[in-house]
Amino acid sequence: MLIEKIKLSALLSFPPDSDWIPLEKLNVIIGPNGAGKSNLIEAISLLQSTPDDFTSPIRKGGGAKEWIWKKRNGQRATIEAIIPNDNLRHANNIHYKLEFAESGQRLEITDEKIEEERPAAGEETPYFYYSIQNGTPIINNNVSTGPRRLERDSVNPEQSILAQRRDPEQYPELTWLGDEFRQIKIYDTWEFGRFTELRRQQPADGKTNFLDEDCLNLGLILNNFRGKPEVKRKVKEYLARFNPSATDVESIIEGNGVRIFLEEGDLSTPANRLSDGTIRFLCLLAILCHPSPPSLICIEEPEMGLHPDAIALLAELLIEVSELTQIIVTTHSDILIDALSSSPESVMVCDKINGKTHLTRLNPDELGSWLEDYSLGDLWVRGQLGGTL
What we know:
Elements (H helix, E strand, L loop, with lengths): L4 E5 L11 E2 L3 E5 L6 H13 L5 H6 L3 H4 L9 E7 L10 E10 L2 E11 L11 E6 L2 E5 L6 E3 L22 H11 L2 E3 L14 E2 L14 H7 L4 H14 L5 E7 L2 E8 L2 E4 L5 H13 L7 E5 L7 H14 L4 E5 L3 H5 L8 E7 L2 E6 L2 H4 L8 H6 L8
Parallel strand pairs: 3-16, 3-17, 10-15, 15-16
Antiparallel strand pairs: 1-2, 1-4, 4-5, 5-6, 6-7, 7-8, 8-9, 11-13, 12-13, 13-14, 17-18
Helix pairs in contact: 6-7
């Protein structure tokens, strides 16, 4: 699990006085349109961008002011996260904080902090790896030599320190955290129309480690599964349950390109002739059946275009993969929520109250008697859970 809890203050639809949001391994967010479900995932895209280019999602989202609570002049937006730490020299969770504002129509990171969540025994303050103190960046690169001030001019105020100090020997904590954030995968723009690039011959020189966010290496990922018998068996099993006529999915590499075919006995159907729902399900299989997923995967409305029976399969896949990684999903599907009736704590309800986004995790103890007579999806549709108009 990458993020134990997250706090968004004066960021998008989250107000300045927002509380911490605890996260579990599986997090399925329900709520009406415009409540702010997607804003949590957009905020996570900021974490994802810190090791490379923090300005990229800010720019794509319309500039710094569009990310700030009610576009208030002088307001600073903050994202904080508690990251479980099993790999660093100090056995303590990491507290990451980044604050930014608009300065002369430009983005400026006004505060950034990487420190341990709690003070060590006998200490009054947590050990820090990087901090901006009174406007001065200070880095801790070695316990024996202590903190070192950085020249302000040597730190780009538009970029996170995670993009500017990458050295596993000198800055192991910063490098580790940057690598963790970089691995985050966010699937929020699903384009499967008849003439989309995904359906054409795909480049044969793409990445083979995990499905790209644009899904344009789908053929390579599916081809890579051929060398993993257990994964291939699982893909074929779910594919047959999705489409009883389907016997396999094949990727054929020809020259510099890869083509995808759905096998139905002796019949091979190329990707450009498959339904949108079938292409989507193949992408979901590539993501959710992978034996080595990244530490956090976010998916916007994965049920779109799927038959109701296939949505139940999707729920199975989400539950299975959450044993390996952390999942955050937004949905409008009561069928998907129905499938989580035995684990209601996986569901978070998103409501906008007085213009402020609030996320509340379902409490199984409070739902006990209700779930004896109704499924979780029924309770949501009936308005018993919140997250409705």
